[in-house]
Amino acid sequence: MNGPDAPGATPPAALPDTSDGGMKITVIENGPFIVTGGVPLTTMEYVYDDLGNCRSWNETTTYPLRERYALCRCGQSKNLPFCDGTHAQVGFDGTEAGDREPFLEGAVITRGPSLTLADNRHLCSHAGFCHRAGGIWNLVRFSDPESRAIAIEEACDCPTGRLVLYDNAAGEAIGQDLEKSIAVIVDPETGEQGPLWVRGGIPVVGADGTPYEVRHRVTLCQCGKSRNKPFCDGSHL
Ligand code: FES
Asked: I want to staple 221 with a disulfide (CB 3.0 to 4.6 A). Which of 187, 203, 216, 226 is the partner?
């Protein structure tokens, strides 16, 4: 397998800036995310199946494109998803505790006949896309086309990037073709917003100026409750 996400690959010594036109997300100490470089912003709703599993996505809103904007990270803004300054009034503690270990160093590898799954639980937001049809960990152990297709859907629909699938024959990670953008995830059953689904490999830089590993999918906390800030850990649930 090849590429920086391949199981067993040596992590790069320096993180590449894969953004277009300087797209970047910067964490502000005890404040919002500052988004620069004209990153498209939308809202996406979960679509549930009859069993209550997350099954797919429905894009509901596209915001006007802006060069720079601030997204709330404390969960208390009255103008979500944008920051309105409330974080300063409520004494938001936005201390970052996010794991800076490269994805593959914290991943458990499951090798199947046609797919290999890398699973890093530290990134989970409990969206639940991975449970359908017996779960992705079971599906990758089979070689039939249906199991393979569902496993790929589950990995590619998971917003967090916890699950990365590799095609054994091609030696490449699957589903690394998302446009650079941010989607505010909305639960249609509760109407609640968050987390923020960052897609396409936009760099995220900590408040101390240290960049996190650039990932193709990652979810950032917007409720202020995560113990893995700036990443979502499912605490909003
Ligand atoms: S981070 Fe500013 S209002 Fe939430």
From this structure: 226
pLDDT at 50: 84
Q: Is residue 188 part of a domain?
A: yes
State the distance from the centre of ligand 1 to the C-alpha of 228, rounded, in angstroms. Answer: 18
pLDDT tens digits, one per residue of 27-75: 999 999 999 999 999 999 988 888 878 888 999 999 999 999 999 999 9
Range of the domain at 128: 103-173
Report the candidate in 166, 193, 26 with the shortest Cα–Cα distance to residue 107: 166
> Does the C-beta of 31 come closer than 6 Å to ligand 1?
yes
Please count the structural domains in the chain: 2
User: Is 156 in the same domain as 192?
Assistant: no
Give yes or no: residues 37 and 91 share one domain. Answer: yes
- pLDDT tens-place string over residues 148-182: 999 999 999 999 999 999 999 999 999 889 999 99
- 2 within a domain of the structure (yes/no): no
CA of 81 relative to ligand 1 center, distance in Å: 9
Q: What 3-state class would DSSP assign to 220?
A: strand
Same domain, 95 and 109: no
| Beta carbon of 83 within 6 Å of any ligand 1 atom | yes
Percentages of the chain per state (helix, strand, coil), in multiples of 5: 15, 30, 55
32 lines ligand 1 (CB under 6 A): yes
pLDDT at 55: 83
Backbone phi and psi for residue 157, each to the nearest 5 degrees, phi listed first: -85, -25
Nearest CA to 150 out of 114, 178, 180, 186 is that of 114
Name the token pair of 206: 């900590």
